[in-house]
């Protein structure tokens, strides 16, 4: 309500500025009675005349108590987010979401990186009367009056985490009156809007890079159809390289380091901050054209396909040549291999690793899968990972940030997430539910205590094993220390085999060649 109130006050524009300027003039000059009467008359005329010419509109407002006036409210989208439409010369900030703030500036917008500021110059009040009164106020008070609005924002989507937000650079958004005769130069003039956001915080973790950055960037900017330029706070060159394929499909323009580029960039519109919907999710009901997570996945497809098309074609041709050379007079070997569904195991080292991974590979192959073990590193090119998972039918992995790669799978594929002790809630919230929204066939495999390495470290009746929620509810640090950092998994393959058999049937419609039970 505070921000709505501030916005409504600004909306009155020149009317209130005239009265305030008169007050400042009286306070400094002590004019004679005749001057006071003259200026008061002019002020009243300035304020009342616009309302006289819009009498019908004013009367309709007076009659709108308790009844919606169709002429006034009917054209407003009641479902539209705050600040969805603002006039020139205004700053509007939507701080209603618990995950992020987002501000909009429209008009003469200019960056000023030395002061970590974005400036908006408004010339609305430079009419003859206000300019005349302004000229009679001393420089100190005039400079103070030139600032019309001042907002602060940290453009990162973890607003609800003070500890991480303390690490994010803050921007000052300032609306100023553009004084006559003062020239504000532009070093770079852009004919497209700007979107300004931070790549600080948890950047470096794949889940957060997509959830807190890439997907909100898509949500916020995709409607510009690439006619937008991105400015980054907490700029990281490796991030720009890593996600360059995606960024190039959201913007036709090079990314700009907000602090590192000292030039004054000028726009007619800027968005500071990003909108976020939910965990790894695009909520179609909140999008202008009902885009969903499937549309985001299609964007990934367009982004990575040019990079991997040639590699896939070469690999497929080599495979065909090899198989045909085995028995060139018979297609039986080739046909059988072609029907084998592809299963990718996302392998981990250290915490939450599958200790009997080799046995899992053997079991999966015996069941009829073509198995690939993928061990992505921090520096592994995303296009290569996309290439593997885009062609897969099933993905298996233990809960962790690497499960974000489910976004690379085709709808209709099977995603099996191994859920260690104490990770049931984040596994479902961060990956299980979003995977279903993408159209994947999601299977969550909750391990038994005897499948956890913690079984050898604690007594069988210890709450760590019998009641993990009693620890996880104490906070993230307990979950991280006990269940994420100190736990590995040894799958009971007879039990896990049921999930493999289910996945095989989902993909092929055929019961697997062999079953462990």
Summarize the structure.
This is Glycosyltransferase 61 catalytic domain-containing protein. This protein has helices spanning 2-11, 14-29, 33-52, 55-62, 70-73, 128-134, 139-146, 162-165, 206-221, 237-242, 244-247, 293-326, 332-339, 357-367, 382-390, 424-438, 463-466, 469-472, 476-484, 493-508, and strands at residues 90-94, 102-112, 117-122, 147-153, 171-177, 188-189, 194-198, 229-233, 256-257, 265-272, 342-346, 370-374, 394-398, 414-419, 441-446.
Describe the structure.
By secondary structure, the chain is of the alpha/beta class. Among the domains are: 90-123 and 144-276, no CATH class; 342-508, Rossmann fold, CATH 3.40.50. The chain contains 20 helices and 15 strands. It has helices at 2-11, 14-29, 33-52, 55-62, 70-73, 128-134, 139-146, 162-165, 206-221, 237-242, 244-247, 293-326, 332-339, 357-367, 382-390, 424-438, 463-466, 469-472, 476-484, 493-508, and strands spanning 90-94, 102-112, 117-122, 147-153, 171-177, 188-189, 194-198, 229-233, 256-257, 265-272, 342-346, 370-374, 394-398, 414-419, 441-446. Strands 1, 2, 3, 4, 5, 6, 7, 8, 9 and 10 form a ten-stranded mixed β-sheet that branches. A five-stranded parallel β-sheet has the order 12-11-13-14-15, sandwiched between helices. A hairpin with a 4-residue loop joins strand 2 and strand 3 (117-122). Helix 2 (14-29) packs parallel to helix 6 and helix 12 (293-326) crosses helix 15 (382-390). The longest helix is centred in the middle third of the chain and has 34 residues, at 293-326. The protein starts with a helix and ends in a 9-residue tail after the last helix. Mean pLDDT is 82; it is low at 1-34, 42-79, 125-137 and 328-337.
